[in-house]
Amino acid sequence: MTAAPSPAAAAHRIRIGSAPDSWGVWFPDDPCQVPWQRFLDEVSEAGYEWIELGPYGYLPTDPARLADETARRGLAVSAGTVFTALHRGPAVWEDTWRQVGKVAALTRAMGARHLVVIPSFWRDDRTAEPIESPELTAAQWRDLATGMERLGREVRDEFGLRIVVHPHADTHIDTEENVTRFLDATDPDLVALCLDTGHYAYCGGDSVRLIQTYGERLGYLHLKQVDPEVLAAVVREGLPFGPAVRRGVMCEPPGGVPALEPVLSAARELDVDLFAIVEQDMYPCPPDRPLPIARRTRRFLRGCGA
Hints:
It comes from Streptomyces pactum. Helix content is 42%, strand content 15%. By secondary structure, the protein is α/β, with parallel strands linked by helices.
């Protein structure tokens, strides 16, 4: 287990962190990405004390080594991340659990308590080609809800972790309609929400309204913004998410939407402990670009009282 962050950081109800995503990391191994050592060095240098694991295999998967590498940089882990395709029914459970088990074990070993669960894309994440329908049938919605509840129960019972489901562009949990349908169909005791402000805005949602309406479901935050002008072109042209990111749809705050001050204010009104992890999608990006953005973003968030 890693060393705990400073008492001052622990005193905040909202704990700010960052993630490999903000360094252009989408895959366990890719020549377009910075080495993991550089990510750890720079995220600490930028003033963050919390990180996510990112794609399994990007950071060391040996808990002792990862604990040493993070602790000596003053970092601790807030969550691991998994992708699931539970709308495909019970046939995918074994493969899903095999993947989840590896990530959950490392997450627990690092002292974290959350597992971020992202639904599978209906487009290929490298080629952007459609691989299934963007709309779920009623039966698939039932499989998604019951599968996610099972995942929440088994992750809790086996690893002591809480799953937080992350609505995401180019998945079946994306728009306000689909997010609220999913939340209404799942047990609050088993399934919480990871609200990503950028993805929700990308898909037309209002983060503040979602927090005010479903605040009891909020278990985790991802902070990012979208450039409204780029987003308008993305919508007009029907671009997939990957090409949209390469065009710069996710932008540095405070240059985009939603405004993060009202989001953080609404989250504070819940009076619960939350992680708020900065995640600015920038894949691929020049290796020298992330650190200056990360520093400016941390200063901006301090100005928001976070």
